[in-house]
Design a protein that fits this description.
By secondary structure, the chain is α/β, with parallel strands linked by helices. It is about 30% helix and about 25% strand. The chain has a single domain, classed as 3-Layer(aba) Sandwich (Rossmann fold), CATH 3.40.50. Helix 1 packs across helix 5.
């Protein structure tokens, strides 16, 4: 079985904590975990990717992803399966909630990625259109540890169960 790589960027550590929960849920033997600030070039070595980011300030891409963006824009993701997750604050920043995830979706989509793991918008209260696939779905798993921390573990579990078949996991 081919391994999955999970790449994340984080300021406060929350996205890294969620990344670790995802790895545990999918099985540590199945997923290699990387911080984008140190190991971004390794992305080319994998056909199955999980990508995680926070949104910072007022709708800005997380700093490590922003720094890696020139290299990311040179990569080819044709034939690669990608699942996204994002962390943010829907109460404090409803108009930019998960914009970072939306920006990464656009970048990977433009480079040919096949996406899995679209997540329902029900249970969230925000106004930003950027992280949306359509009115009813985010482009990936949406986590709000600031306002809904009690839902994180359940959301991670459901999302991982949903993406397992696309990644060849049972």
């Amino acid at each position: 079985m081919k391994k999955i790589a999970l790449f994340y960027g984080t300021y406060t550590g929350i996205t890294g904590i969620v990344a670790e929960k995802i790895v545990k849920e999918l099985g540590e033997e199945n997923v290699d975990l990387y911080n984008i600030s140190k190991d971004g070039e390794r992305m080319n070595d994998y056909d199955m990717l999980i990508i995680g980011t926070s949104t910072w300030s007022i709708g800005e891409l997380q700093e490590d992803w922003d720094a890696f963006m020139p290299k990311l824009q040179e990569m080819d993701f044709n034939g690669k399966t990608v699942a996204l997750f994002g962390t943010g604050d829907q109460v404090g920043y409803p108009d930019t909630f998960l914009d970072g995830m939306g920006m990464l979706y656009e970048t990977f989509q433009y480079r040919g990625a096949k996406f899995v793991g679209f997540w329902p918008t029900s249970g969230y209260d925000f106004t930003s259109p950027l992280p949306l696939l359509d009115h009813d779905h985010f482009v990936g798993l949406a986590i709000d540890e600031d306002n809904q921390p009690e839902l994180t573990d359940e959301r991670v579990h459901k999302w991982c169960t949903m993406i397992k078949p696309a990644f060849g996991l049972k």
